Protein backbone atom coordinates (compact mmCIF):
# COMPACT_ATOMS: atom_id res chain seq x y z
CA UNK A 1 0.00 0.00 0.00
CA UNK A 2 1.48 3.30 -1.11
CA UNK A 3 0.38 6.49 0.61
CA UNK A 4 0.97 10.06 -0.47
CA UNK A 5 2.51 12.39 2.06
CA UNK A 6 -0.80 14.18 2.48
CA UNK A 7 -2.33 10.94 3.80
CA UNK A 8 0.44 10.36 6.36
CA UNK A 9 -0.65 10.04 9.98
CA UNK A 10 2.51 11.73 11.27
CA UNK A 11 3.52 15.17 9.99
CA UNK A 12 7.10 13.89 10.00
CA UNK A 13 6.18 11.71 7.02
CA UNK A 14 3.65 14.15 5.64
CA UNK A 15 3.99 17.91 5.81
CA UNK A 16 7.65 17.82 6.84
CA UNK A 17 8.76 14.70 4.95
CA UNK A 18 11.33 16.48 2.79
CA UNK A 19 13.03 18.07 5.78
CA UNK A 20 13.62 14.68 7.38
CA UNK A 21 15.00 12.89 4.33
CA UNK A 22 18.47 12.48 5.92
CA UNK A 23 17.04 10.81 9.03
CA UNK A 24 14.50 8.51 7.40
CA UNK A 25 16.93 5.91 5.93
CA UNK A 26 18.58 5.60 9.35
CA UNK A 27 15.66 5.45 11.79
CA UNK A 28 12.83 3.99 9.69
CA UNK A 29 11.90 0.31 9.65
CA UNK A 30 14.00 0.01 6.52
CA UNK A 31 16.92 1.44 8.47
CA UNK A 32 16.24 -1.06 11.25
CA UNK A 33 16.19 -3.96 8.76
CA UNK A 34 19.42 -2.68 7.23
CA UNK A 35 21.20 -2.75 10.58
CA UNK A 36 19.87 -6.20 11.40
CA UNK A 37 21.37 -7.49 8.16
CA UNK A 38 24.64 -5.77 9.06
CA UNK A 39 24.77 -7.46 12.48
CA UNK A 40 23.93 -10.89 11.09
CA UNK A 41 26.61 -10.56 8.40
CA UNK A 42 29.29 -9.38 10.82
CA UNK A 43 28.50 -12.22 13.25
CA UNK A 44 28.53 -14.77 10.42
CA UNK A 45 31.87 -13.62 9.03
CA UNK A 46 33.41 -13.52 12.51
CA UNK A 47 32.24 -17.08 13.19
CA UNK A 48 34.03 -18.21 10.05
CA UNK A 49 37.26 -16.84 11.49
CA UNK A 50 36.78 -18.36 14.95
CA UNK A 51 38.67 -21.55 14.15
CA UNK A 52 35.74 -23.95 14.34
CA UNK A 53 36.39 -27.10 12.25
CA UNK A 54 32.76 -27.07 11.09
CA UNK A 55 33.03 -23.54 9.63
CA UNK A 56 36.11 -22.78 7.59
CA UNK A 57 37.18 -19.18 6.95
CA UNK A 58 35.20 -17.60 4.16
CA UNK A 59 36.89 -16.80 0.89
CA UNK A 60 37.63 -13.15 0.00
CA UNK A 61 34.92 -13.31 -2.64
CA UNK A 62 32.31 -14.51 -0.16
CA UNK A 63 33.24 -11.78 2.30
CA UNK A 64 33.01 -9.10 -0.37
CA UNK A 65 29.63 -10.43 -1.44
CA UNK A 66 28.26 -10.46 2.12
CA UNK A 67 29.49 -6.97 2.94
CA UNK A 68 27.98 -5.86 -0.36
CA UNK A 69 24.57 -7.04 0.86
CA UNK A 70 24.97 -4.59 3.72
CA UNK A 71 26.44 -1.75 1.69
CA UNK A 72 23.85 -2.00 -1.09
CA UNK A 73 20.80 -2.77 1.07
CA UNK A 74 17.77 -1.20 -0.61
CA UNK A 75 14.09 -0.54 -0.12
CA UNK A 76 13.40 -3.59 -2.30
CA UNK A 77 15.44 -5.72 0.11
CA UNK A 78 13.50 -4.37 3.07
CA UNK A 79 10.20 -5.10 1.32
CA UNK A 80 11.37 -8.64 0.55
CA UNK A 81 12.05 -9.17 4.25
CA UNK A 82 8.60 -7.80 5.10
CA UNK A 83 7.09 -10.27 2.65
CA UNK A 84 8.80 -13.15 4.47
CA UNK A 85 7.56 -11.75 7.78
CA UNK A 86 3.97 -12.21 6.59
CA UNK A 87 4.62 -15.94 6.99
CA UNK A 88 6.99 -15.99 9.97
CA UNK A 89 5.21 -13.27 11.96
CA UNK A 90 8.70 -12.69 13.38
CA UNK A 91 10.81 -9.89 11.98
CA UNK A 92 14.25 -11.14 13.06
CA UNK A 93 13.57 -14.63 11.70
CA UNK A 94 12.49 -12.99 8.45
CA UNK A 95 15.89 -11.28 8.24
CA UNK A 96 17.62 -14.63 8.82
CA UNK A 97 15.58 -16.34 6.09
CA UNK A 98 16.16 -13.46 3.66
CA UNK A 99 19.91 -13.60 4.24
CA UNK A 100 19.98 -17.34 3.65
CA UNK A 101 18.01 -16.82 0.44
CA UNK A 102 20.84 -14.56 -0.78
CA UNK A 103 23.21 -17.54 -0.49
CA UNK A 104 21.62 -19.39 -3.41
CA UNK A 105 24.02 -20.19 -6.25
CA UNK A 106 26.95 -19.79 -3.85
CA UNK A 107 27.77 -23.30 -2.57
CA UNK A 108 30.33 -22.00 -0.07
CA UNK A 109 27.66 -19.95 1.70
CA UNK A 110 24.92 -22.55 1.36
CA UNK A 111 27.15 -25.07 3.13
CA UNK A 112 27.57 -22.71 6.09
CA UNK A 113 24.00 -21.38 6.16
CA UNK A 114 23.18 -22.82 9.60
CA UNK A 115 25.79 -20.50 11.12
CA UNK A 116 23.57 -17.53 10.25
CA UNK A 117 22.10 -16.30 13.57
CA UNK A 118 24.12 -19.02 15.33
CA UNK A 119 23.47 -19.13 19.11
CA UNK A 120 21.80 -15.72 18.93
CA UNK A 121 18.58 -14.60 20.51
CA UNK A 122 16.59 -11.97 18.63
CA UNK A 123 17.69 -9.31 21.08
CA UNK A 124 21.35 -9.93 20.23
CA UNK A 125 20.48 -8.66 16.78
CA UNK A 126 17.97 -6.01 17.83
CA UNK A 127 19.97 -4.25 20.55
CA UNK A 128 23.05 -3.91 18.37
CA UNK A 129 20.91 -2.76 15.45
CA UNK A 130 19.32 -0.07 17.60
CA UNK A 131 22.75 1.08 18.73
CA UNK A 132 23.92 1.24 15.10
CA UNK A 133 20.84 3.25 14.17
CA UNK A 134 21.46 5.72 16.99
CA UNK A 135 25.14 5.89 16.10
CA UNK A 136 24.34 6.84 12.51
CA UNK A 137 21.59 9.28 13.49
CA UNK A 138 23.88 10.97 16.00
CA UNK A 139 26.83 11.23 13.62
CA UNK A 140 24.97 12.09 10.43
CA UNK A 141 21.98 14.17 11.59
CA UNK A 142 21.82 15.29 15.23
CA UNK A 143 25.39 16.44 15.85
CA UNK A 144 25.81 18.14 12.45
CA UNK A 145 22.54 20.02 12.98
CA UNK A 146 23.60 21.16 16.44
CA UNK A 147 27.05 22.09 15.15
CA UNK A 148 25.41 24.26 12.48
CA UNK A 149 23.29 26.04 15.09
CA UNK A 150 26.29 26.56 17.37
CA UNK A 151 28.28 28.12 14.52
CA UNK A 152 25.39 30.33 13.41
CA UNK A 153 24.94 31.55 16.96
CA UNK A 154 28.68 31.96 17.45
CA UNK A 155 28.76 34.18 14.37
CA UNK A 156 25.99 36.31 15.85
CA UNK A 157 27.77 36.49 19.21
CA UNK A 158 30.90 37.84 17.56
CA UNK A 159 29.12 40.15 15.11
CA UNK A 160 27.02 41.77 17.84
CA UNK A 161 29.59 41.60 20.64
CA UNK A 162 29.71 45.40 21.01
CA UNK A 163 26.03 46.20 20.43
CA UNK A 164 24.58 47.32 23.79
CA UNK A 165 21.19 46.02 24.84
CA UNK A 166 18.94 46.64 27.80
CA UNK A 167 18.55 43.60 30.02
CA UNK A 168 15.14 42.69 31.38
CA UNK A 169 15.42 40.63 34.54
CA UNK A 170 11.90 39.74 35.75
CA UNK A 171 10.72 41.56 32.61
CA UNK A 172 11.91 44.87 34.07
CA UNK A 173 14.73 47.15 32.96
CA UNK A 174 18.06 45.95 34.34
CA UNK A 175 21.81 46.41 33.92
CA UNK A 176 22.70 46.55 30.21
CA UNK A 177 24.43 43.74 28.36
CA UNK A 178 25.27 43.34 24.67
CA UNK A 179 23.36 41.39 22.06
CA UNK A 180 26.45 39.32 21.40
CA UNK A 181 26.88 38.38 25.05
CA UNK A 182 23.30 37.13 25.32
CA UNK A 183 23.80 34.99 22.22
CA UNK A 184 27.16 33.83 23.59
CA UNK A 185 25.37 32.46 26.66
CA UNK A 186 23.38 30.18 24.36
CA UNK A 187 26.48 29.22 22.36
CA UNK A 188 28.33 28.02 25.43
CA UNK A 189 25.36 26.12 26.87
CA UNK A 190 24.54 24.46 23.57
CA UNK A 191 28.16 23.55 22.85
CA UNK A 192 28.42 21.82 26.23
CA UNK A 193 25.13 19.99 25.64
CA UNK A 194 26.40 18.88 22.25
CA UNK A 195 29.51 17.40 23.85
CA UNK A 196 27.38 15.48 26.34
CA UNK A 197 25.46 13.92 23.47
CA UNK A 198 28.67 13.01 21.66
CA UNK A 199 30.22 11.50 24.79
CA UNK A 200 27.55 8.86 25.42
CA UNK A 201 28.97 5.36 24.80
CA UNK A 202 26.63 3.29 22.62
CA UNK A 203 26.55 -0.25 23.98
CA UNK A 204 25.84 -3.64 22.46
CA UNK A 205 25.54 -7.17 23.83
CA UNK A 206 25.62 -10.53 22.04
CA UNK A 207 25.39 -13.05 24.86
CA UNK A 208 22.29 -15.10 24.24
CA UNK A 209 18.82 -15.59 25.66
CA UNK A 210 19.52 -14.47 29.24
CA UNK A 211 23.00 -12.98 28.96
CA UNK A 212 25.04 -16.04 29.97
CA UNK A 213 26.20 -17.54 26.63
CA UNK A 214 24.23 -20.71 27.42
CA UNK A 215 23.65 -21.90 23.85
CA UNK A 216 27.13 -20.81 22.78
CA UNK A 217 28.83 -23.00 25.37
CA UNK A 218 26.48 -25.88 24.67
CA UNK A 219 27.79 -25.93 21.09
CA UNK A 220 31.48 -25.12 21.76
CA UNK A 221 32.22 -25.59 25.50
CA UNK A 222 35.87 -24.60 25.45
CA UNK A 223 35.55 -21.45 23.40
CA UNK A 224 35.94 -17.95 24.90
CA UNK A 225 32.60 -16.60 23.75
CA UNK A 226 32.77 -13.44 25.82
CA UNK A 227 36.03 -12.37 24.16
CA UNK A 228 34.62 -13.30 20.76
CA UNK A 229 31.46 -11.26 21.34
CA UNK A 230 33.48 -8.29 22.56
CA UNK A 231 35.64 -8.41 19.42
CA UNK A 232 32.64 -8.45 17.07
CA UNK A 233 31.01 -5.54 18.89
CA UNK A 234 34.11 -3.37 19.32
CA UNK A 235 35.83 -3.92 15.94
CA UNK A 236 35.17 -0.87 13.75
CA UNK A 237 32.76 -1.07 10.84
CA UNK A 238 32.42 -2.62 8.30
CA UNK A 239 33.88 -5.88 9.60
CA UNK A 240 32.64 -5.20 13.14
CA UNK A 241 29.98 -3.00 14.72
CA UNK A 242 32.10 -0.22 16.23
CA UNK A 243 30.15 -0.14 19.50
CA UNK A 244 31.08 -0.41 23.19
CA UNK A 245 30.77 -3.86 24.75
CA UNK A 246 28.06 -4.52 27.34
CA UNK A 247 29.22 -7.48 29.51
CA UNK A 248 26.16 -7.72 31.78
CA UNK A 249 22.60 -8.05 30.60
CA UNK A 250 19.38 -10.00 30.85
CA UNK A 251 17.89 -11.02 27.51
CA UNK A 252 17.88 -7.37 26.51
CA UNK A 253 20.63 -4.79 26.77
CA UNK A 254 19.52 -2.71 29.81
CA UNK A 255 19.06 0.50 27.76
CA UNK A 256 20.69 2.72 30.37
CA UNK A 257 22.93 4.24 27.72
CA UNK A 258 19.84 5.03 25.65
CA UNK A 259 18.33 6.88 28.61
CA UNK A 260 21.59 8.80 28.98
CA UNK A 261 21.62 9.68 25.28
CA UNK A 262 17.98 10.72 25.15
CA UNK A 263 18.36 12.80 28.31
CA UNK A 264 21.37 14.52 26.73
CA UNK A 265 19.42 15.33 23.56
CA UNK A 266 16.51 16.57 25.67
CA UNK A 267 18.88 18.88 27.57
CA UNK A 268 20.07 20.44 24.30
CA UNK A 269 16.45 20.78 23.23
CA UNK A 270 15.55 22.55 26.47
CA UNK A 271 18.33 25.08 25.91
CA UNK A 272 16.89 25.76 22.47
CA UNK A 273 13.37 26.14 23.89
CA UNK A 274 14.81 28.79 26.21
CA UNK A 275 16.47 30.56 23.28
CA UNK A 276 13.35 30.27 21.09
CA UNK A 277 11.32 32.09 23.72
CA UNK A 278 13.97 34.74 24.27
CA UNK A 279 14.45 35.55 20.59
CA UNK A 280 10.64 35.57 20.16
CA UNK A 281 10.57 38.25 22.83
CA UNK A 282 13.39 40.23 21.24
CA UNK A 283 11.53 40.21 17.93
CA UNK A 284 8.41 41.42 19.77
CA UNK A 285 10.41 44.27 21.31
CA UNK A 286 11.74 45.21 17.89
CA UNK A 287 15.37 44.35 18.70
CA UNK A 288 15.36 42.09 15.66
CA UNK A 289 13.56 42.44 12.36
CA UNK A 290 12.88 39.47 10.09
CA UNK A 291 13.82 39.35 6.43
CA UNK A 292 10.81 39.15 4.19
CA UNK A 293 10.18 36.30 1.79
CA UNK A 294 8.48 37.01 -1.51
CA UNK A 295 4.87 35.85 -1.40
CA UNK A 296 4.91 34.88 2.27
CA UNK A 297 1.83 35.82 4.34
CA UNK A 298 1.89 36.44 8.10
CA UNK A 299 -1.86 36.68 8.72
CA UNK A 300 -4.98 35.94 6.68
CA UNK A 301 -6.50 39.28 7.77
CA UNK A 302 -3.60 41.49 8.92
CA UNK A 303 -1.31 42.17 5.96
CA UNK A 304 1.35 43.94 8.02
CA UNK A 305 2.33 40.96 10.15
CA UNK A 306 5.70 39.21 9.97
CA UNK A 307 5.36 36.48 12.56
CA UNK A 308 8.29 34.67 14.24
CA UNK A 309 6.88 31.35 13.04
CA UNK A 310 10.22 29.54 12.71
CA UNK A 311 11.01 30.00 16.39
CA UNK A 312 7.44 29.09 17.34
CA UNK A 313 7.62 25.94 15.22
CA UNK A 314 10.99 25.10 16.75
CA UNK A 315 9.64 25.51 20.28
CA UNK A 316 6.61 23.34 19.57
CA UNK A 317 8.60 20.54 17.94
CA UNK A 318 11.26 20.63 20.65
CA UNK A 319 8.48 20.09 23.16
CA UNK A 320 7.16 17.09 21.23
CA UNK A 321 10.66 15.67 20.97
CA UNK A 322 11.31 16.06 24.68
CA UNK A 323 8.00 14.48 25.65
CA UNK A 324 8.96 11.37 23.67
CA UNK A 325 12.61 11.41 24.75
CA UNK A 326 11.63 11.57 28.40
CA UNK A 327 9.24 8.66 28.03
CA UNK A 328 11.95 6.68 26.26
CA UNK A 329 14.52 7.43 28.96
CA UNK A 330 12.10 6.58 31.79
CA UNK A 331 10.57 3.45 30.27
CA UNK A 332 13.37 1.68 28.40
CA UNK A 333 15.61 0.82 31.41
CA UNK A 334 12.69 -1.07 33.00
CA UNK A 335 11.98 -4.71 32.05
CA UNK A 336 10.16 -7.40 34.04
CA UNK A 337 12.54 -10.17 35.10
CA UNK A 338 14.71 -11.30 32.18
CA UNK A 339 12.48 -9.91 29.42
CA UNK A 340 9.18 -8.35 28.55
CA UNK A 341 8.09 -6.80 25.27
CA UNK A 342 7.07 -3.36 26.47
CA UNK A 343 10.32 -1.90 25.13
CA UNK A 344 9.87 -3.26 21.61
CA UNK A 345 7.08 -1.01 20.37
CA UNK A 346 8.52 1.97 22.28
CA UNK A 347 11.92 1.57 20.60
CA UNK A 348 10.26 1.88 17.22
CA UNK A 349 9.54 5.52 18.10
CA UNK A 350 13.17 6.56 18.59
CA UNK A 351 13.14 8.01 15.09
CA UNK A 352 10.00 9.99 15.86
CA UNK A 353 11.60 11.55 18.94
CA UNK A 354 14.78 12.42 17.05
CA UNK A 355 12.73 13.45 14.02
CA UNK A 356 10.94 16.19 15.93
CA UNK A 357 14.30 17.38 17.26
CA UNK A 358 15.82 17.45 13.76
CA UNK A 359 12.75 19.28 12.46
CA UNK A 360 13.10 21.87 15.23
CA UNK A 361 16.80 22.37 14.49
CA UNK A 362 15.91 22.99 10.84
CA UNK A 363 13.26 25.58 11.77
CA UNK A 364 15.69 27.24 14.16
CA UNK A 365 18.29 27.54 11.41
CA UNK A 366 15.77 29.14 9.05
CA UNK A 367 14.68 31.56 11.77
CA UNK A 368 18.24 32.61 12.56
CA UNK A 369 18.94 33.24 8.88
CA UNK A 370 16.03 35.71 8.75
CA UNK A 371 17.12 37.85 11.70
CA UNK A 372 18.29 41.41 11.15
CA UNK A 373 19.47 43.55 14.04
CA UNK A 374 17.47 46.72 14.68
CA UNK A 375 20.14 48.95 16.22
CA UNK A 376 17.79 51.94 16.40
CA UNK A 377 15.28 50.11 18.60
CA UNK A 378 18.04 48.89 20.89
CA UNK A 379 19.50 52.39 21.27
CA UNK A 380 16.08 53.94 21.88
CA UNK A 381 15.30 51.47 24.65
CA UNK A 382 18.60 52.21 26.36
CA UNK A 383 18.05 55.95 26.11
CA UNK A 384 14.76 55.56 27.97
CA UNK A 385 16.36 53.60 30.82
CA UNK A 386 18.80 55.90 32.63
CA UNK A 387 17.65 54.36 35.91
CA UNK A 388 19.96 51.42 35.22
CA UNK A 389 22.89 53.66 36.16
CA UNK A 390 21.68 53.64 39.75
CA UNK A 391 23.68 50.42 40.18
CA UNK A 392 27.13 51.75 39.21
CA UNK A 393 26.60 55.07 40.99
CA UNK A 394 25.65 53.49 44.32
CA UNK A 395 28.47 50.94 43.97
CA UNK A 396 31.06 53.73 43.56
CA UNK A 397 29.47 55.58 46.50
CA UNK A 398 29.85 52.48 48.65
CA UNK A 399 33.50 52.17 47.62
CA UNK A 400 34.19 55.61 49.04
CA UNK A 401 32.13 55.14 52.18
CA UNK A 402 29.19 57.38 51.30
CA UNK A 403 26.58 56.40 53.86
CA UNK A 404 23.20 55.10 52.67
CA UNK A 405 24.30 54.79 49.05
CA UNK A 406 21.74 52.19 48.07
CA UNK A 407 18.91 53.97 49.85
CA UNK A 408 19.72 57.33 48.25
CA UNK A 409 19.65 55.86 44.74
CA UNK A 410 16.48 53.94 45.52
CA UNK A 411 14.80 57.18 46.55
CA UNK A 412 15.80 58.88 43.32
CA UNK A 413 15.04 56.03 40.88
CA UNK A 414 12.64 53.32 42.09
CA UNK A 415 9.37 53.43 40.19
CA UNK A 416 10.21 56.81 38.66
CA UNK A 417 11.06 58.12 35.22
CA UNK A 418 14.72 58.97 35.57
CA UNK A 419 16.23 61.71 33.43
CA UNK A 420 19.97 62.10 32.73
CA UNK A 421 19.99 65.46 34.49
CA UNK A 422 18.58 63.90 37.67
CA UNK A 423 21.54 61.55 37.88
CA UNK A 424 24.03 64.25 36.97
CA UNK A 425 22.76 66.46 39.79
CA UNK A 426 23.19 63.60 42.24
CA UNK A 427 26.68 62.75 40.97
CA UNK A 428 27.78 66.39 41.22
CA UNK A 429 26.79 66.39 44.91
CA UNK A 430 28.71 63.25 45.86
CA UNK A 431 31.78 63.45 48.15
CA UNK A 432 33.96 61.26 45.90
CA UNK A 433 37.27 61.87 44.05
CA UNK A 434 36.92 64.16 41.02
CA UNK A 435 38.23 61.53 38.61
CA UNK A 436 35.52 59.15 39.75
CA UNK A 437 32.91 61.88 39.43
CA UNK A 438 33.91 62.56 35.83
CA UNK A 439 33.87 58.82 35.02
CA UNK A 440 30.32 58.51 36.33
CA UNK A 441 29.21 61.66 34.51
CA UNK A 442 30.52 60.22 31.23
CA UNK A 443 28.70 56.92 31.69
CA UNK A 444 25.55 56.17 29.67
CA UNK A 445 23.24 53.14 29.66
CA UNK A 446 24.88 52.07 26.40
CA UNK A 447 28.41 52.20 27.82
CA UNK A 448 27.59 50.37 31.05
CA UNK A 449 28.07 46.81 29.78
CA UNK A 450 30.96 45.49 31.86
CA UNK A 451 32.87 42.64 30.19
CA UNK A 452 29.95 41.71 27.93
CA UNK A 453 31.75 42.43 24.66
CA UNK A 454 34.88 40.54 25.68
CA UNK A 455 32.85 37.56 26.87
CA UNK A 456 30.93 37.51 23.59
CA UNK A 457 34.09 37.53 21.49
CA UNK A 458 35.61 34.68 23.54
CA UNK A 459 32.63 32.37 22.96
Provide structural commentary.
The protein folds into three domains: 112 residues, Fumarase/aspartase (N-terminal domain) (Fumarase C, Chain B, domain 1, Orthogonal Bundle), CATH 1.10.275; 237 residues, Fumarase/aspartase (Central domain) (Fumarase C, Chain A, domain 2); 74 residues, Ribonucleotide Reductase Protein R1, domain 1 (Orthogonal Bundle). Helix content is 60%, strand content 4%. Strands 1-2 form a two-stranded antiparallel sheet. Helix 7 runs antiparallel to helix 8. It starts with 23 loop residues before the first helix and ends with a helix. The relative contact order is 0.11.
Question: What is this structure's SSE topology?
Answer:
Layout (H helix, E strand, L loop, with lengths): L23 H4 L1 H20 L11 H12 L3 H14 L2 H11 L5 H5 L10 H38 L4 E4 L6 E5 H21 L3 E2 L9 H6 L5 H10 L9 E2 L10 H30 L2 E3 L18 H23 L10 H6 L2 H21 E3 L1 H9 L6 H10 L5 H9 L6 H9 L5 H9 L9 H7 L1
Parallel strand pairs: 3-4
Antiparallel strand pairs: 1-2, 5-6
Number of domains: 3
Q: What CATH architecture of the largest domain would you give?
A: Up-down Bundle
CATH superfamily of the largest domain: Fumarase/aspartase (Central domain)
Instruction: Please give the alpha-carbon distance between the first and last residues.
Output: 51 Å
Largest sheet: 2 strands, antiparallel
CATH class of the largest domain: Mainly Alpha
Tell me, rounded to a whole number, the average pLDDT: 95
State the helix count: 20
Name the helicity range.
55-70%
The CATH topology of the largest domain is given as: Fumarase C, Chain A, domain 2
Q: Can you tell me the residue ranges where pLDDT is under 50 for at least 5 consecutive residues?
A: none
Work out the strand percent.
Answer: under 5%
Describe the strand arrangement of the main beta sheet, using strand numbers.
1-2
Amino acid sequence: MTLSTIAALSPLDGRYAARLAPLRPLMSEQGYMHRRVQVEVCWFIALSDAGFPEFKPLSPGARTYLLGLVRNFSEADALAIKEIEKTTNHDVKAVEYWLKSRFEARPELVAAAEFVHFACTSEDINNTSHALQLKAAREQVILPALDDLVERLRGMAHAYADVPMLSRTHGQTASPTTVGKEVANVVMRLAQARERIAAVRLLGKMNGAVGNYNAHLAAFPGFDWEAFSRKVIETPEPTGLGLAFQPYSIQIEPHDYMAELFDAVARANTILVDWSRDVWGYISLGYFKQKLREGEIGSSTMPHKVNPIDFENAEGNLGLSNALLRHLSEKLPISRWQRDLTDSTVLRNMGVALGYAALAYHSMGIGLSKLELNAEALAEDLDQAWEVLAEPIQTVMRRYGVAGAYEKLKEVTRGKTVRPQDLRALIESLPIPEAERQRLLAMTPGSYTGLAADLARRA
